[in-house]
Write a structure and sequence with these properties.
135 residues; mainly beta; three-stranded antiparallel sheet; 2 helices; binds zinc ion; DUF317 domain-containing protein
Length: 135
């Protein structure tokens, strides 16, 4: 499955506030986010009933893995969005032949499929599609 191609501009001040107030957020939020940044939906292609989701930050907390996501629907003046700190998806892809384990990069209870079944159409133009290019 191909990756969704939706892009949106970051709601900068709200995103900064979320980064600054989340547990395990960056020390200095403006260092990790620029005001003119655009965010790409990370999910596999989906229909309009599903929110787009762009990854913003991985929290560094000792016991829980959770990430900050921007979730949105619509575009332009019709865009509705929210910032949410969500636990990571527990799914892992194990490839016995190569002994690699690829964790899903999405949040828990995301719409199907998992990230390791999604191909970035832009990335494929640069690198040949391999299923196990993990280090
Ligand atoms: Zn999307
Ligand atoms: Zn997943």
């Amino acid at each position: 499955m191909l990756q969704c191609t939706a892009v949106t501009d970051v709601p900068y001040h709200e995103a900064l506030l979320a980064l600054a107030t989340m547990e395990g957020g960056p020390e200095h939020a403006p260092d990790v986010l620029a005001p003119d940044e655009f965010l790409l939906c990370e999910l596999g292609e989906h229909d309009e009933s599903v929110e787009h989701a762009a990854y913003l930050w991985a929290a560094r907390t000792p016991d829980v893995d959770q990430d900050l996501w921007l979730l949105w629907t619509g575009a332009g003046a019709h865009r509705l969005y929210r910032l949410a700190v969500l636990p990571v998806c527990p799914a892992r892809l194990r490839e016995l032949a190569t002994r690699t384990v690829t964790p899903c990069a999405y949040f828990d209870h995301h719409p199907a499929p998992h990230s390791f079944h999604v191909t970035d159409p832009l990335g494929d133009l640069i690198a040949p599609p391999t299923s196990n290019d993990e280090p």
